[in-house]
Amino acid sequence: STFPYFGPPLSPSSFRSVPYSYYPPDTLSLPSSGMEGDTDLQFLLVGGDLLKVRSSSWKKTRFYKLQEDCQTMWHESKKTFKFNQTFSIKDISAVRAGRQSEGLRKNTEEPVEGRCFSIIFKGRRKNLDLMASSEEEAKQWVTSLEKIMSNMENLNSQQKTEHWIFNCLRKADKNSDNKLSLEELKDFLHQINIEVDDQYAEKLFQECDQSKCGHLAGDEIEHFYSLLTHRQEIDTIYGEYAKTTGFMSAENLLEFLIKEQREEATLADAHRLINKYELDDKAKEKQLMTQDGFLMYLHMPEGLVLNPTHKAVHQDMSQPMNHYFISSSHNTYLMEDQLKGPSSTEAYARALIKGCRCVELDCWDGSDGEPVIYHGYTLTSKILFKDTIKAIKEYAFKTSDYPVILSLENHCSVEQQRVMAQHMSSILGSALLTSPLGDQMPTDFPSPEELKGRFLVKGKRLTKLEACFGPEETAGDDGSLTEEEEDDKEEEEEEKKKEGKKLKLAKELSDMVIYCKSVHFNGFQDAKDNLGFYEMSSFKERKAMALAEESANSYIRHNVDKLSRIYPSGTRTDSSNYNPVPLWNAGCQIVSLNFQTSCNDMDVNQGRFLTNGKTGYILKPAYMRDLGSEFDPITLTAGPWLQHKTLHLMIISAQQLPKVNQKKTSIVDALVKVEIHGVPADTADKETPYIGNNGFNPMWNENFKFDVYVPELALVRFVVEDHDSVTDNDFVGQFTVPFTSLQMGYRQVPLLNKEGDPLPSAGLFVHIMIMDA
Fold it and tell me: Which terms under GO biological process does the entry name (predicted)?
């Protein structure tokens, strides 16, 4: 396959109308969403009064309704009688019935349980806690909101584009007459992220204003829409293979799949794609694919950059648990920084829904005999241990069925430790692992498959695990420090003084620690000679990074039969993160990050755990599961890990990039960076030039070449930025994917925002070729 050159972006004179199957109607009314006449939709469009709850004393009635765009909720204040935009449906993460949020549990009484519900938002936005006038009405709100959320998620990419363009058209239509004047058209182009000079805009307007009446309406808006959404690069590719009376036959499509997409496809696969994605019934009857159907295919899983077979569980899940990288969170309870930010059970829900499988609980004595969770010696707020365990149970297995590790940082007295054990036992029940699997002392970890739906406690233990199968050893004083403090004690003696006194360990809590017993690290040889497989150490990032750089192969061998947990330095009071890649390269399984902080490192972490069904478990390469492994990511000597590949990558174009700066005159100057994350020899980045004043359909046709020596550990990150010649570029969107999960050929790259949520309609169009070097 060759890399075609598509030439410069279109000029107005080279626009031509393309027949789209999903035209917006003649007026600026909502494109079809499949919910016309739906009673739940009508309920939201009519709206109703709800009690907004902020505190026990602040509860005010607000009138909420869904706007005609079916995407935006507005509310009316009883005081001002003015409508204000409240939120977009696409910003909702979940709707939860009952008093599930901390705010509702704290500020309402149990008898109103059935009348309450919460709207949980993506990112850091606070929950919206609401109360309806009756249980039936609350159920109706929850059902209706969940239905419209589901409907929006299930729209195909073309429908999402139409809805987005429609909303921009509505905003531009200032006088709501379902027509576009020249000034309104200019405003619309600004909204969709295109900067054009007056001459260009006037030429485009005149081309569409066939009635010569000074505004666009009906068919003219339809014509304008087709010009706007026309993609020249798709013309070129489709034209190359549409050899059957101007259309693609199944045979033409098969040729494209084999030659360009490098797939081992059959004619049956081509027929399946036509039946699945062709929009024109007549073409489908003749087993032909139109350009619209071809574009639809490119936006669907089969056409995306991520191999669709890797989206589901595709790895062997029967290996010992320590043979996997495990998605892990640090200080999971925090919503923001480490000094004065809020603690919340919602933070656990968000991390678990993102696929996190190891959460941290920083436990301290609380009032009324109830242990609490917060960041000790700081002003962070406190949450009850029992509420946290309830939240963990509720959300642990919504995204992944595979085991969750509860990493305890235990600062509690023996009495409150017993309360902790009681809460975990009563709330988690049989899902809590309290004894080894099998009837004899194990010699290795069980597999994630064997531990499905189970909770494992990580913490101190008074005895060896062998005591479960023989005479119990005498339980003694376990020492003074929690694990993270113990790891730091050589460097930070003052941490000892903070404890004030030695802590003893309650037997009830100790007995719950089975496969994850926390111990101090005294060197690789000591661990090999004296520690059981179930005895694991935690490492501060600085110490772990040093070991990964200076003793990488020893670290890898250590992690073949032990677990290692890494955590951020205590100096990261802003909840910033560190680069997890060098630790994965050293075989470390539990590389804990601050999930509450959006950053490049969290993007890479999300990319690492994107595949295998988002289980939170990724099988390490075979050479990292072998006790005799000679692999060293630093020196990179010859071995089975060396599979030198050449990645040829063409960044062709982008579509519908969101505005970074919401000012009317601000337009994105888009550029694309491509980063390779992996062993040091593979780490690289390259970027395109920026395209000025076009975030709607910039085109680059820029070719890159990367050498990748250890593909099983490599990740590819696509980043779109808004160029700024004075300050740092602004982040627009990104997508990170494992190198071994890339699909070759012409591929669409979906984009995610800072929080890791999809940007509707936005994406990159690329060409990928991977060759043996």
Answer: intracellular signal transduction; lipid catabolic process
User: By C-alpha distance, which of 563, 522, 564 is closest to 541?
Assistant: 564
User: Tokens 């902020």 correspond to what residue?
Assistant: 54
Biggest CA-to-CA distance, the chain: 96
Q: What is the mean pLDDT of the chain?
A: 87
List the beta strands (DSSP E) in 54-97: 59-66, 72-77, 83-88, 92-97
d(CA 324, CA 658): 36
Would residue 375 show up in a list of annotated catalytic residues for this protein?
yes
On whether 565 is known to bind a ligand per the annotation, the reply is yes
Question: Is 538 annotated as contributing to ligand binding?
Answer: yes
Q: Residue 498: its pLDDT value, please? A: 43
Residues ≥6 apart with Cβ < 8 Å to 111 = none
- Give the SS3 label for residue 529: helix
428 to 387, 392, 616: CA distances (angstroms): 12, 9, 20
Q: What is the pLDDT of residue 38?
A: 85
H helices of 465-598, in order, are: 483-488, 494-499, 507-510, 524-530, 541-550, 552-561, 581-585
Tens of pLDDT, residue by residue over 546-587, are: 999 999 999 999 999 999 999 999 888 888 999 999 999 999
* Residue 79 annotated as binding site: yes
Judge whether 48 and 32 are in contact, CB under 8 Å: no
Q: What is the pLDDT of residue 190?
A: 74
- DSSP sequence for 215-235: SB-THHHHHHHHHHH--HHHH
Q: Give the C-alpha distances (Å, rounded to integers) separating 144 from 96, 148, 444.
A: 12, 6, 49
pLDDT for the residue numbered 761:
80
Determine whether the annotation assigns residue 141 to a binding site.
no
Tokens describing residue 283: 């073409």
Q: According to the annotation, is 542 in a ligand binding site?
A: no
Which of 163, 330, 411, 558 is catalytic? The answer is 330
Active-site residue 330, yes or no? Answer: yes
81-94 CB burial, b ≥16 within 10 A, e <16: eeeeebebbbbbbb
Give the tokens for residue 699.
């085109």
Annotated binding residue 458: yes
Phi, psi of 69, deg, nearest 5: -75, -5
Residue-level pLDDT at 492: 46
Q: Supply the DSSP string of 86-137, one letter for each residue.
A: EEEGGGEEEEEESS-SHHHHHHS-GGGGGGEEEEEESTTPPPEEEE-SSHHH
DSSP symbols for 374-389 = S-TTS----EEHHHHH
Q: CA 77: distance to chain centroid? A: 35
Task: Quick: pLDDT tens for 620-638.
Answer: 999 999 999 999 999 999 9
Closest to 558 measured CA to CA, from 521, 608, 591 = 521
Determine the Cα–Cα distance for residues 254 and 274; give it in Å rounded to an integer: 11
Query: Whole-model pTM?
Result: 0.85
Q: Do the Cβ atoms of 593 and 600 come closer than 8 Å?
A: no
H/E element holding 617? strand 617-619
54 labeled binding residue:
yes
Residue of 163, 375, 677, 767 marked catalytic: 375
How many residues can be counted in the chain?
Answer: 773
- Is 59 within any annotated ligand binding site? yes
Positions of the chain with pLDDT under 50: 1-31, 474-481, 485-487, 489-501
78 annotated among ligand-binding-site residues? yes
